[in-house]
Design brief:
It is a single chain. By secondary structure, this protein is mainly α. It contains two helices and no strands. The termini are far apart. Keywords: Membrane, Transmembrane, Transmembrane helix.
Length: 61
């Protein structure tokens, strides 16, 4: 019976669960932010690539 009461009062596992939940939330936010930024960055990169490919290179001075 003493071991059961000691197990119930022990808070080490609760701290670990808190850290796991916080870390999962941060990872989820980062993934969503990179997804949102990645789409805009891809579109902007295509626009820059189109502009650069339309430019000529002067070979004489």
């Amino acid at each position: 019976m003493t071991q059961i009461l000691e197990f119930i009062r022990d808070e080490d596992g609760a701290v670990t669960v808190d850290w796991v939940v916080i870390t999962a939330a941060i990872v989820g936010l980062c993934i969503s932010a990179f997804g949102w930024i990645g789409n805009d960055t891809h579109d902007y990169g295509e626009r820059i690539g189109g502009h650069m490919s339309s430019q000529g290179v002067k070979t004489t001075y």
